[in-house]
Amino acid sequence: MKNLINFFKGMIIGIANIIPGLSGGTMAVVFDLYDDLINAISTLTKKFKENMLFLIPIGLGAGVGVLGFSKLLEFLLQNYNIPTNFFFMGLILGSAPLIYKKSTTKGINPKVIISFVIALLIIVAMKVVIPPSSGLELTRLTVTSFIILFLSGVVAAGSMIIPGISGSFVLLLLGVYYSILGAVADLNIPILIPVALGVLVGVLATSKLIDILLKKVPEITYSAILGFVLGSLVVIYPGFTFSIQGVIAVVVLIIGAAASFISSK
Hints:
Layout: H1 2-18, H2 24-30, H3 34-42, H4 48-79, H5 81-103, H6 110-128, H7 143-161, H8 167-174, H9 177-186, H10 189-216, H11 218-236, H12 244-264
Helix pairs in contact: 1-2, 1-4, 2-5, 3-10, 4-5, 5-11, 5-12, 6-11, 7-8, 7-10, 10-11
Transmembrane segments: 12-31, 52-70, 82-100, 112-130, 142-162, 169-185, 191-210, 222-240, 246-264
Keywords: Membrane, Transmembrane, Transmembrane helix
Pfam family, one: VCA0040-like
């Protein structure tokens, strides 16, 4: 039963990674999987069987989320943009009390506050200050495109691991989002190979660093995570209109918040 639950949580993590502005890492925090996920990846070879048994259901779910729901998500974002984004905002808001609790186990101090504020400002700056690139058209593999795609994979994967920072949004900033999305749709394997290699390196390196931070300075790390997560609300907020969609948006926001709050307890 636990593996099945983790599979469905993995699906939502995968779906979240498709949405520019939303992070799979955020959803892992929402479902209280983040610590275990980071630890399993960073100590993969030390407890290989145990870690793989934990990671496989989540990984399979994430794969199904990306491949199986990308068309549905595209439809929802195009036709029901406000309710769809409000649902994910609800998921984020519902997890905030748990993250706050983890960031203040030793009380509130200046380091915790500074960590939170810096993380929050980083996310807001990514939305407000940095315009997404118009994009590079990479359809053929060359030495230059291999390097660009590999490094983009490293940076995006590292971003996906950090709650609140969207890997898809980072790919937009780097100008390769649509090239990679097109490669996935067309199964352009030569283009996808350097991206996959970069993702592998980025995930392993970033998860190791975060695992160290969670063990050495957990309160400061979680206060930064809280800043990243709440900052992502600014990024995915679609605006609001007083209409039927607006009413539905408020309802699904409450449902999402309640679901993540209960799940994280």
